[in-house]
Every structure is written in structure tokens, then in C-alpha cells.
Specification:
Blueprint: E1 10-12, E2 18-20, H1 21-39, H2 49-56, H3 60-66, H4 70-95, H5 99-119, H6 121-124, H7 127-130, H8 133-154, H9 162-172, H10 177-182, H11 194-217
Antiparallel strand pairs: 1-2
Helix pairs in contact: 1-2, 4-5, 4-8, 5-8, 5-11, 8-9, 8-11, 9-11
């Protein structure tokens, strides 16, 4: 296994200045650690880029080379959690061999996604994150997971009828950060409506799957 300390690849830093990849990785980690320390508790706003420069001890130019804005930094910090969540759901869906198993995977995914959203609600509902590319990517991945489950439950292959896409949109929103915030949840409170919300989402899934199966058989 290669050790980054022995890799002699240099990254441009400006006129006459170079940085080894190991230095770049260390700086990136320092920046991420500074963000974590600034947001580990409920926050009203994200730290500023200037805050991160001060907390990390990394130069301003280096911070901006890694993260052009606070939205990209915030979502990069959360990427590891999202990647693990969606990777597990994809693997479980690939392993499902019956509609009932696919439905069980969908239910499990919705609970995990809602819990992850609530755990990071303060960050996810800041304006910087809401408008970030990472937020759009998370929404897309959520829709893909729900769509895959509904297709497997109804046996319609890779088609995307309007009814399916409507259901995907409604079900995906059961854990939308803006929705959770609008009903008064915070990352420090319980989520008493989780069971009800996911039960309703699954009722939508069951009704739509039934209609899709009927349409397929006609």
C-alpha cells in the first residue's frame, strides 16, 4: 500500500510554490476538523470562511482552493455519511429478490434517511447548503433509491411513467430537511412523527405499485 508521505506528486500553489499531495490532504483534514468543531452543536448559521481560516490555521488561499464556498465545505463534510447511507440501500436493493423484500428495503432506507437528515438538520437547512450542488446531488440520490424500490416492487423494469415519478417525489419528501424544520424538529429533539410519516409514505408506495401492476397487465 502506498503511503502518501512517499508520493512525490506536486500540486500548484502559485508562482514558485508547490505542495505535496500529503500536505494537501493534511490541510483538507484540518479544514474539515475546523468545520466539525464549529458545528458540532445546534447552530443558527454556518461559520464563515474567515472563521474556518482562523480555526484551521490554514492559509486563506489554501482554504479556498479546497472549498470555494461554505456550501461546498459543509456538504463535503457530510458526504461520507450520505455515501454510506445510499451505498447500503443500493446493496440491499440489489440483494432483494421479491417485491416484499424491496418494500422492506424501502422502509429501512426511509427510516435511515430521515434519521440522518434530522441528525444534521441545522446544517442542512442553512441557505449555503440548500443552494449547494451537494444538496442537489443528495436529493437526486434519494429519488434514485426510492425509484429503484418502486420499480422492483411493481416489476415495471426501467420505465418511468408519470405516476411513478409523482410517487417518487412525494415519498422522497417525507424526510426533506425543509419539511422537518417546518414541523418544529431540531437535531436535538425527538422525532415523534417519524413512524407516521414513513407509514404514510409506504401507503403511497403500495397504492402506486398496485396501479402500476394493473397498468402493466392490461
Amino acid at each position: 500500500m502506498h503511503k502518501w508521505t512517499n508520493v512525490h506528486i506536486f500540486l500548484p500553489m502559485g508562482k514558485g510554490v508547490c505542495m505535496t499531495r500529503s500536505d494537501a490532504l493534511l490541510n483538507r483534514q484540518q479544514i474539515m476538523d475546523a468545520f466539525h468543531n464549529a458545528t458540532r452543536h445546534e447552530v443558527d448559521r454556518l461559520p464563515t470562511m474567515s472563521d474556518i481560516v482562523k480555526l484551521s490555521g490554514v492559509g486563506r488561499g489554501t482554504v479556498y482552493r479546497h472549498f470555494p464556498d461554505m456550501g461546498s465545505l459543509a456538504f463535503s463534510f457530510m458526504t461520507k455519511g450520505y455515501e454510506a447511507l445510499f451505498a447500503k440501500s443500493r446493496e440491499m436493493l440489489r440483494s432483494a429478490t421479491t417485491p416484499a423484500q424491496s418494500r422492506a428495503v424501502l422502509e429501512d432506507h426511509l427510516y435511515r434517511y430521515r434519521a440522518f437528515t434530522k441528525e444534521n438538520l441545522a446544517i442542512l437547512t442553512t441557505s449555503e447548503v440548500i443552494t449547494s450542488d451537494g444538496c442537489n446531488l443528495a436529493h437526486t440520490s434519494q429519488r434514485q433509491a426510492v425509484r429503484r424500490a418502486l420499480r422492483d416492487m411493481s416489476g415495471i423494469g426501467k420505465t418511468s411513467p408519470d405516476l411513478l415519478e409523482t410517487a417518487v417525489d412525494l415519498i422522497s419528501r417525507s424526510a426533506d430537511p425543509a419539511h422537518l424544520k417546518s414541523v418544529g424538529l431540531t437535531q436535538d429533539t425527538d422525532d415523534p412523527m417519524a413512524n407516521t410519516a414513513i407509514k404514510l409514505a409506504l401507503e403511497i408506495a403500495d397504492a402506486v405499485v398496485l396501479q402500476l401492476k394493473s397498468s402493466k397487465d392490461e
